[in-house]
Amino acid sequence: MSSSGYFSVARFVAWRNIRVVIRTPALLLPTVLFPLFFLLAFAGALSSISKVLGGQNYTAFQFVFALLQAAGFTGAMGGFAMAEDFESGFMPRLMVTAPHRTAILTGYTIGILGRGVIAAAALTAAGFILGMHLDGSALEIVAMFALAALLTLATTLWSLAVALHIRSFKAAPFMALPIFLLLFLTPVFVPLSQLTGWLHTVAAKNPFTPVVEAGRGFISGDPTDVALSFGILGGITAFVILFALHGMRRAEAAGGAP
Amino acid sequence: MSSGFGQQLRLLARRSIARTLRDPGTVAPAILIPLLLYLVIEAGLTKATSLQGFPTKSMPTFAITLAFANGALSMVGSTGQQIATDIETNFLDRLVLTPMRGAALLFSGLAGTIVLGVIQLAVFFGVGLATGAHVEAGVLGGLVVAAMFLTAVIGFGALGLFLGLRTGSGQAVQGVAPMMLVFLFLSSVIFPRNLISADWFRWIATVNPVSYFVEGMRSVFVFGWDAEALLYGFLFAGALVLLSLVAASAALRSRLARV
Known about the structure:
Distance between the termini of chain A: 28 Å
Structural class of chain B: mainly alpha
Strand content of chain B: under 5%
Oligomer: heterodimer
Radius of gyration of chain B: 19 Å
Number of strands of chain A: 0
Number of helices of chain A: 10
Shape of chain A: elongated
Largest sheet of chain B: none
Shape of chain B: elongated
Number of domains of chain A: 1
Largest sheet of chain A: none
Strand content of chain A: under 5%
Helix content of chain A: over 70%
Number of domains of chain B: 1
């Protein structure tokens, strides 16, 4: 198979996933509206908390969580899109016609990353309107967005892997719930060092905690857990790639049938 | 068979309760999501109690109203979904052919909601007290919280009935129900209004009626007896019941006229 064949399939699937949100912007609402709403509520209601955080800009502190939440939500939407394509019969037909099936995975992933860019842009604009300060250098801010992009990649591949294994919209809770739970069990309101009790114990063991803390370090110009956070997301991504490839083989064996 | 109002109400209420309790997709989210939010916020915001002016040193006591308020708001989705399903499956069309009275359909539709509300009440009180919350106003205060909560449960359930009857679509109800979270989080539910330093948010929380429902229940937990907070809380819950039932009755009449 030629590489041009691979890329033409990937490009077609990616563009299809971006075009659908251009035609139906409402599909972007869950990925933008909920993180935006949590940013509004937490940054607005809890602004006084900055006094116990040593004066750190609380909107920026919450923006990082909202950005990562949007990344996770966007990733989950990838699996929703593929599950819907399985149920509508599009995915089985695509698997018959595509010469190299991993190009389909690549296409969905690129398309969902494109949606993630739209969500991140909307949230960033909202953050500035709410008074967010960027105290990190340009490189640190780029690193923060890179972290969000890597989280989108990992969660997209996770949800696609689940969609490939179950091939039905019934799989939606398995795609989304682990992502939401892991994100909510990080230090959402205060840094890990200021948490106490059971939530401190859980958050300290949560692999997403260094990611959230690293993002907050970048935005405040005080990088922390950089290698650890990228390492964790890189490791999760490597694992979910294998999981997704296994799912693709399972889907091929089933002929794309649910 | 008698077709009297009481008989109609009893039969339809039994159906409503059975449907609610047999559906884990209704019961589990109505209990687990409010509890998860309460536990995360109670543990995550413990540090806030050290702020000057924070009304209590016990975060569980402050935060437990989040579970109650979220639980009550969740009734919009669950009750609305049931009536919308009855419309989508043509159950309502078949009922019209019987001597069934509209009021029986409306009130019985709230039976499952009330039973679920009572279960929520027991679970939220149990988990709240087990995690360190206390009721400053004592046992009588607990009963007042129960009364305000169940009144709001009926109000939000009736609002769900209105949405279900108006749209006739479970998908539409599920689309609107999450917006209830907006009202919840843009209120004083996670932080006291006097300590919100962002002026724009304090203004939103002040005009948001859900704040008064939350503060009414919270006053019993945190302060003891605060007549003004209780008055506003019951006013909110009572007005919600009245307005939602009037709207749901109008939507039912309009729906039946189309059948």
